[in-house]
Design brief:
The chain contains 30 helices and eleven strands. It is mainly alpha-helical and 794 residues long. The strands form four sheets. The chain has a three-stranded mixed β-sheet. It has a three-stranded antiparallel β-sheet with strand order 5-7-6. A three-stranded antiparallel β-sheet has the order 9-11-10.
Length: 794
């Protein structure tokens, strides 16, 4: 049934086709020509309309019938050619002469009007002749009707007029660059002709217009730059350059809001404000156009701008011109390798400021040392040391330029690197004979210990910790900082001078994050170990309460610490007073109840003793003294003796001469003279005789007697660090060789330096010595044929 129906329908269609009247070529084309002339008259504004809908359908039907008739009455080929000829004739007779009569902007207005008319004509006729596109054009692989219409305009008008069009547009662009107002929409429409005439290819636009506008742009700004560089300062020049770049970008893709009637924004179907492009260059021109401007205004004059004497990069840094520096970064970031010179100048400027600061602090330290001879102890104590001043200024300097990098240079990694290099270059300098690592450790000590002059809030201390850790990143000898910090931390903890345990742990957490867990492992162990020791002391006190018969003759507090966490301290075999000895025996007995496999080593140099005594004549006054255990042992000798010689004190305590001199000096020659020395003087000799100063008087009832520190403590720290470095270098070399098995000398040196750089910067000579030592110890061997090659010995 389906087949029968289909056959019937086809037969009827053929019948109607056979019955249709044949349209000859000439009569049919005459009718088409009549409609085309009506369209031309409309385009020339001779009539108000092209044709009615009935005429449109009649026109379309005539073309359709002439294309679908059987041969020899299929006139598709003839219609295709006459379609082309219609455009050619109209353009040659009406469009081209009208354009040739005008020049400049008038010609461009005429051109855009003719172009819009031509596109309308192409659009209407290509729809009416659509049947040709469907079958004839596709079958013979010809140009589509729309393209044929545009090519006719290209061949007759565009090819002839393009130099005139280009020159007129260039003239208008130049006027706008000089500050005049122009018809942007006109320029945009003309440039769209360059684009559309290429039928999807940008070749016409690029070769016939863009090439010339780029040349004119370079020439224009080359002239401007040569004038500005002579007359303007660096900031003024940059403001002009930035404005020019904004204007050129504006000529490509500026967005403007379209306002509706009555000032209301016109809305599209979705309710969003419509946007139009008020620029006239094609968007593909933007990068090449801006490249021309950047090359002429920035690239060619970069160093001349940066080095301007009173307004260049250094002057802007010196005068804190943040806005100008930010503009400088924005501009020179646009050109290849434009940021490098700015970063180098920043680095050199910071380094010069840092070196000047080092020099100034050293000079003031020398001056303060000379003035100290004429100042009282109170004045010297209240005066801030140059070392502390230097660290504060260092923090302030880093804050200043870090803010520059963040705000002016957009956190660019290149400028962070410049900042780092600058600080590394002057942070290794010594200030008042102290390395920067020691200064930072001392500064932290002042922040964290009780009674320091730094009265900061908790948040301010935490912020300062953060800044110290940032500075630590620039220090090459971080292991030296760690050792100094550990020494000072131990003193704060052992002598109860730490102001806040939370701050101590916070600082260690920051150091751990900055330098790794190995950096702070011993320090964290010290805090934990101290807490364990305090718990142990609490159990000892409970033990004494349960066994009152074992209570020592004096109050005893003992901190049992793990030796591996704490710095090494001198240990002596001093003979202590009986009262102290009995207390030690009681504690040993208690400690042995818990474990018998540990040996206690008593470090009297770290002990603190509270003594009470009566002095004064004729009226006695009771004093409470806080002093070192060794000082207390000396004082207790005078409970049973009126006078003792230097030798007798030494023999009774079994101490070295140096220790005895230090102890007796602190008790007889310092501020609080509890002992009288014969003969009097400010130094202690081995022939001196000492007796108790029964007439001692002071306003204070509680007095702390300090023990002078052992000299050359800094030297001992350096020796410890250098010894540790040898072990670290050995370990690094062995690790590398164990993994690589065979390695050249230069590669081994490079990898060793890289591995150790996070802790310290090893000396090349030291590495060579350690390699030789490892060869002697059979860890490595030289290759027999190549002495520059090392092999690992398993």
């Amino acid at each position: 049934i389906v087949r029968s129906t289909t056959t019937t329908t086809t037969t009827r269609a053929r019948s109607r086709n056979m019955d249709r009247e044949i349209i000859e070529l000439q009569p049919g084309w005459e009718k088409c020509r009549m409609y085309i002339n009506k369209l031309i008259a409309f385009l020339e504004k001779e009539t108000e309309s092209a044709f009615t809908s009935e005429e449109y359908m009649s026109f379309y039907t005539i073309v359709y019938n002439m294309c679908t008739q059987k041969n020899p009455y299929d006139f598709s080929q003839e219609l295709y050619q006459r379609y082309r000829d219609s455009f050619t004739g109209y353009i040659s007779e009406r469009v081209a002469p009208a354009l040739q009569e005008k020049n400049g902007e008038a010609m461009l207005h005429e051109l855009t009007m003719r172009w819009e008319n031509h596109k309308l004509m192409v659009r209407l006729l290509s729809r009416i002749f659509k049947y040709l596109d469907r079958y004839y054009v596709s079958r013979y692989n010809l140009d589509y009707l729309n393209d044929v219409g545009l090519m006719c305009f290209r061949d007759i008008v565009y090819e002839y007029m393009k130099p005139t069009m280009k020159n007129a547009v260039l003239s208008m662009v130049l006027k706008e660059r000089e500050g005049e107002q122009i018809d942007r929409q006109l320029v945009k429409t003309v440039l769209e002709i360059f684009v559309e005439i290429g039928l999807g290819n940008m070749k016409n636009y690029e070769e016939d217009f863009e090439k010339y506008i780029l040349e004119e742009t370079s020439l224009h700004y080359r002239t401007k730059a040569s004038e500005w560089i002579e007359d303007d300062s660096c900031p003024a020049y940059m403001i002009k350059a930035e404005k020019c770049l904004e204007l050129e970008k504006d000529r490509v893709n500026q967005q403007q809001q379209v306002e509706g009637a009555g000032g209301a924004s016109a809305k599209d179907a979705d309710g969003a404000s419509k946007q139009v492009n008020s620029g006239y260059f094609h968007h593909t021109t933007e990068s090449r156009l801006l490249d021309c401007v950047e090359d002429e205004l920035l690239a060619k004059y970069e160093m001349q701008l940066l080095e301007k004497e009173n307004s260049g990069c250094v002057a802007l840094l010196r005068e804190d011109k943040k806005e100008d520096l930010a503009r400088m970064y924005r501009l020179f970031s646009r050109i290849p390798k434009g940021k490098e010179p700015v970063a180098k100048m920043l680095s050199k400027h910071i380094e010069s400021e840092g070196m000047a600061m080092v020099k100034e602090c050293n000079e003031r330290a020398e001056q303060a040392k000379a003035e100290a001879l004429t100042k009282s102890k109170k004045e010297r104590r209240n005066q801030e040391s140059q070392e502390t001043v230097f660290v504060k200024r260092l923090i302030k300097l880093h804050d200043k330029y870090l803010l520059y990098v963040q705000e002016c240079f957009d956190n660019d990694a290149l400028f962070h690197k410049a900042l780092k290099e600058a600080f590394e270059n002057f942070c290794h300098k010594q200030v008042a004979n102290c390395a920067c690592s020691e200064l930072l450790a001392s500064f932290c000590d002042n922040l964290l210990k009780k009674g320091s002059g730094e009265k900061l809030s908790g948040d301010a201390i935490e912020e300062t910790f953060e800044k110290i850790c940032k500075l630590l990143a620039y220090i090459s000898d971080k292991d030296m900082y760690a050792e100094f910090y550990r020494k000072k931390l131990s003193k704060r903890l052992l002598f109860d001078r730490s102001a806040n345990e939370d701050h101590e742990r916070s600082m260690l957490a920051r150091l751990k994050q900055q330098c790794g867990p190995q950096f702070t492992s011993k320090m964290e162990g010290m805090l934990t170990d101290l807490q364990v020791a305090k718990d142990n002391q609490g159990r000892f006190e409970q033990h004494l309460e349960k066994n009152p018969e074992k209570k020592p003759p004096l109050d005893l507090s003992v901190l049992v610490l793990t030796q591996g966490f704490w710095p090494s301290y001198p240990v002596n075999t001093m003979i202590i007073p009986d009262e102290m000895e009995k207390g030690i025996e009681i504690f040993k007995e208690f400690y042995d109840l818990k474990t018998k496999h540990r040996k206690l080593t008593w470090v009297f140099t770290l002990g603190v003793c509270h003594l009470s005594g009566r002095f004064g004549s004729p009226r006695e006054k009771k004093y409470n003294f806080q002093m070192n255990t060794m000082q207390a042992a000396v004082m207790m000798l005078f409970n049973s003796e009126e006078k003792l010689s230097f030798g007798e004190v030494r023999d009774r305590l079994k101490l070295d001469d140096a220790d005895v001199i230090r102890l007796l000096h602190s008790l007889s020659c310092a501020k609080y003279k509890l002992l009288l020395k014969n003969p009097p003087g400010k130094t202690v000799s081995k022939t001196d005789i000492f007796e108790l100063n029964t007439k001692f008087q002071d306003k204070m009832a509680r007095i702390r007697i300090p023990l002078p520190p052992v000299e050359q403590e800094k030297k001992k720290v350096a020796e410890i660090v250098h010894a540790d470095r040898r072990y670290q270098i050995d370990a690094a070399i062995v690790r590398i060789m164990k993994a690589r098995k065979v390695l050249k000398h230069s590669e081994l040196m490079t990898e060793t330096v890289t591995q150790l750089s996070s802790s310290f910067k090893p000396d090349v000579k030291t590495i060579k010595k350690r390699i030789m030592d490892l060869i002697e110890r059979d860890f490595l061997e030289r290759d027999k044929n190549d002495p520059q090659l090392f092999r690992y010995l398993a």
